[in-house]
Structure formats: structure tokens, C-alpha cells
């Protein structure tokens, strides 16, 4: 069975790279080694390096495990798509408005 590849847009690749850099900086600020963070996250050091590079083929679950290993930073994942302004506007456009029943001639 061949491995599936996902097409990632260039803008998304840059976001992942920045996220990887931020994860690496968070690890370095805490003075934690790659060995310790990888062990806490239950992943290999090579996978941690891939995460710190922003590699798109690494699962989001592994990113979450690393963030958790950095003293609970995984709570920040709850902020993703929290305030979906565009989605709410689309939803509001599809709201059904009730229409009044037409008046009969004799109801006046």
C-alpha cells in the first residue's frame, strides 16, 4: 500500500514552520533537552525534530503530546477556530426567517 501525501499550501507550510520554531523556543526557554521532551511526549527525538521544523506529515496528536510535555501548553489548542467570524456570518446568512401568514380579507 502506497503512502498518501497531503498537499499543503505554501502559506500553511510557513505557519507550520513558525509553529515548529515556537515549540522549539518554548523548549529552549524551559531549558529542556530534546531527549526529555521526546520521552515525556512518548515520541522519538527524530519526531520531535520534525515537529520543531514544522513538518506537515507529523500528526496533530504528536504536536499536542509535545505541547503537553512542555508543561501543559496543549491547552492553547482550544483557541484554534474559537472565534470563527467568517463561519458565523455564513451561518447567519442561512438562518430561516419566519414569514407571517397572509391576511385574509375578512380579518380586518
Provide a descriptive summary of the structure in words:
With 108 residues, the chain is mainly α. 52% of the residues lie in helices and 0% in strands. The protein is built from five helices and no strands. Helix 1 packs across helix 3 (45-53), helix 2 (34-41) crosses helix 3 and helix 2 packs across helix 4 (60-69). The longest helix is centred in the first third of the chain and has 20 residues, at 10-29.
Secondary structure layout plus pairing:
Elements: H1 10-29, H2 34-41, H3 45-53, H4 60-69, H5 85-93
Helix pairs in contact: 1-3, 2-3, 2-4
The main pleated sheet reads as:
none
Described by the principal axes of the CA atoms, the overall outline is: elongated
Helix content: 40-55%
Low-confidence stretches: none
Oligomer: single chain
Overall pLDDT metric: 88
What is the element string, with H for helices and E for strands? HHHHH
Q: Give the class from helix and strand content and strand pairing.
A: mainly alpha
What fraction of the residues are assigned to beta strands by DSSP? under 5%
Radius of gyration: 24 Å
Distance between the termini: 74 Å
* Distinct helical segment count: 5
Give the tally of β-strands: 0
Précis, in short:
This protein is 52% helix and 0% strand.
Task: Sum up the structure in keywords.
5 helices; mainly alpha; 108 residues
Amino acid at each position: 500500500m502506497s503512502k498518501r501525501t497531503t498537499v499543503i499550501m505554501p502559506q500553511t507550510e510557513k505557519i507550520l514552520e513558525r509553529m515548529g520554531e515556537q515549540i522549539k523556543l518554548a523548549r529552549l526557554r524551559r531549558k529542556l533537552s530534546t531527549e526529555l521532551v521526546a520521552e515525556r511526549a512518548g515520541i522519538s527525538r527524530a519526531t520531535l525534530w520534525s515537529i520543531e521544523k514544522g513538518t506537515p506529515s507529523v500528526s496533530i496528536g504528536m504536536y499536542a503530546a509535545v505541547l503537553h510535555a512542555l508543561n501543559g501548553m496543549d491547552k492553547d489548542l482550544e483557541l484554534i477556530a474559537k472565534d470563527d467570524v467568517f463561519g458565523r456570518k455564513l451561518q447567519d446568512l442561512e438562518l430561516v426567517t419566519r414569514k407571517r401568514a397572509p391576511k385574509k380579507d375578512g380579518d380586518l
